[in-house]
Amino acid sequence: MPASLFIEQHAQGLAFYINGNLQFDTADEAIYHEYLVVPAISLAVRRFPGTPLRVLICGGGDGLAARDVLRFAEVAEVTLVDYSPAVLELGRTVFSPYNQGSLLEDGQTALGASRVAVYTQEAFEFVSRLPDRVFHVIICDFTSPTTPQETRIYSREWFAEVVRILHPAGVVAENAVSPEQTPTAFWCLYQTLLAAGLQPKPMQIPIPSFRSHDYGDWGFFLASPQPILRTELETLSVPAGLQAFQAESWLTVFQFTAALAAHRHSLCIHTLACPQLFYYLLNPQIPSQEAGTRSSSQGADWIDFLDIQEPGTGLIGTLDLLQLDSMAKVWLERMRASDNPLHDPAVWEPFIPVQHSYHSPKMTREWLGYLRSLLTEIDLNQLLSSLTQRAQELPPKFAAEVKQLNEKIRTGQPLTYVSEHMTELMVVLSVTLLMANLTHPDAVFAKGFSGFSSHRSGYGSSFDNYSSSYDNGTNAGNGQFGWFGFWTMLIGAGWLVSLYRNRDE
After folding, report:
1. Which residues are catalytic?
2. Which of 124, 329, 498, 502 is 20 to 30 Å apart from 201, CA to CA?
3. Which residues of the chain are modeled with pLDDT < 50?
4. Whether 88 contacts 120, CB under 8 Å
C-alpha cells in the first residue's frame, strides 16, 4: 500500500506527515536535524583531519539532513538513498526553501556546487551491494517503524552492514525512538547496536512539535566501532549559522535518569531471525513517573553515558511475542512452572500483547475482559467430536483423554478431573478465540456477519443479532462464517498438538 503523504501549511511554515505520523515541522525541525547531523560530522572532522569526507544518508528524502551535512566544507561527497520517489520529489520542490536546495542540481542550490548523489532504492538492498569501508559518516534518518516489516533496517543484520561499509573510526548517527514513551524499544536498539560491533552513546532531546503530538522526548544514537570519548566531544568545531544546536551545553543530551536507563540490561536484541523491536514499540512498559524526563526528574539519580563504556548483553529472543503460537507457548510454560496450574492466577493471567499501532494496552485489557464470555460460545461437543474423529493424528495419550472427556460430556458424567493436556488445550483455544475475534469479530462464534456498515457496535455485535440481510431463512451467515470460526478454533488445537507431539512420542 502506498504511503499517505500530507502537508499542513501554517504561519511558521509547514508540517509534513506520512501515514498520519509527523515527520517534521519547520517551526522546530532544526532541533531534530542539527542534533542528528552536527555531532556526527564534527566528530568525523576531528577523527579524519585533512581528509575529504564521504557521507551516506539513509532515508532523509526531505533533504533537511543533507542541508546540515553540506554546512561542512570538509564533506566532499554525500550519497543519499531513499526508497520513496514522492518524498524525494517534495525534497526538490516544496521542501526546497527549507533544505536550501540540498537536493537540486549544480547552479540551483543555495549551498553551492552540488555534492549530493541521490538514489531511489530500499536502503538495505543498496547498502548490501557497497564495498567495505567506503564512508566516514553514515546517517540513518529513517521514519519510525509502524509495521514489523519496517523494523528490518533497525536489525543487527542491518547495523552489521553499516559497520562493514564504515571506516573503523567512522561515525554513525541513528534516528531512534522516544526513550520517554517507548523505553524498551529504545534500549532494544541500544543493545542491538552493541551486538553489531558499535559503541553507541544514547541521546534524548525535547522537540516541541513531537511533544505536542505525544511522541515524548526524542532519541538518537551517536555511535562508532571505536569508543567515543568525552574529550573528543568537548572540543568539537561546529559550523556557523546553526539554529538549535547549543555548542556550549549540548553534552547534557547524553544524560538519562537511572530509572529510565535501568531497562537497558534486560532487553533482547532485534534480529531478522527473531524480531523484537516492534513488540517493544507496541508494548513499551513505560516506567513509573519517577523515571521521568529531564523536566520532571530534578534530584533523581542520573547516568551520563559519556562517562561509561559498557559491553552489550547480546540477549537473543527465542520467541516473536507477536505471533499466536508464541503466546500459547508462554501460557504453557507458566503451567509447567506452577504447582497448581488450574487455580494459579499467574497462569491464567492472559498474555495477549498489543498487536497493532492503532491499539493500546487499555484496549487489550478490555478484550481480555471478554474471555469468559467468549469461552461460553464454544460448542465443546462439536469441538471434541471433531478432535475424536482425527484421533489418529494426535499423540496417543492426548487422543485417549479427548475420547474420555468426549464420552463424559456425551453421557452427562461429572467432570471431577481435567488433565494437564485438557487444560493446555483450553489455554491455546482461549488465545485462538481472542485473536480470531480481533480479526473476524462477527465470524468466530457462529453469530453471522454484520456486513460492512460504517458504524460498528463494538463487541456487542458478536453476541447480538446479525444483519437481517444475511438472515433470509437460509442462515447463510451462520453457515459460512460460523464454520470459519469453528475451524479457527481447531487450528489452535493443532498448535497444541504440535507443541506436545515430541514430548508424548
Report:
1. 141
2. 124
3. 289-291, 441-490, 493, 496-497, 500-505
4. yes
pLDDT single digits (tens) 311-359? 999 999 988 888 877 877 777 777 677 776 656 666 655 566 787 777 7
- Whole-angstrom Cα distance, residue 446 to residue 428? 19
Cα distances (Å, whole numbers) of residue 455 to 440, 451, 458: 16, 10, 9
Helix (H) or strand (E) holding 171: strand 166-175
User: Which CATH number applies to 14-304: 3.40.50.150, 1.10.10.10, 3.40.50.300, 3.40.190.100?
Assistant: 3.40.50.150
> What is d(CA 290, CA 258) in angstroms, rounded to the nearest whole number?
10
What is the Cα–Cα distance from 290 to 259, expressed in whole angstroms?
A: 7
CB atoms within 10 A of CB 121: 12
Contact 195, 162 (CB under 8 A): no
pTM of this prediction exceeds 0.85: no
- Helix, strand, coil shares of the chain, percent, nearest 5, are 45, 15, 40
Grid cell in block for residue 460: 456487542
Domain segments of the chain: what residues?
A: 14-304, 324-504
Lookup result for grid cell 529513517: 142
| Whether the Cβ atoms of residue 204 and residue 287 lie closer than 8 Å to each other | no
List, for residues 249-262, the tens digit of each pLDDT value: 999 999 999 999 99
Torsion-angle region of residue 241: left (phi > 0), alpha (psi -120 to 50) or beta? left
DSSP assignment of 112-178 equals SS--EEEEES-HHHHHHTSPSS-EEEEEEEPPPP-SGGGGGGGSHHHHHHHHHHEEEEEEEEEE---
Name residue, grid cell 552489521.
160
Radius of gyration of the chain (CA): 28
Strands (E), 354-394: none
Contact 20, 51 (CB under 8 A): no
> Using CA atoms, how far apart are residues 8 and 71, in angstroms rounded to an integer?
28
Residue pair 487/440 in contact (Cβ under 8 Å)? The answer is no
Exposure string (b/e) for 367-383, b if CB count within 10 Å is 16 or more?
Answer: bbeebeebeebbeeeeb
Beta-strand pair 53-59/255-257: unpaired
Helices marked H in 213-285 — which ranges? 230-234, 258-261, 277-282
Distances from the Cα of 211 to the Cα of 24, 217, 249, 282, 480, angstroms: 12, 7, 21, 18, 48
Q: Of how many residues is the chain composed?
A: 505
Kind of pairing, strands 166-175 and 199-205? unpaired
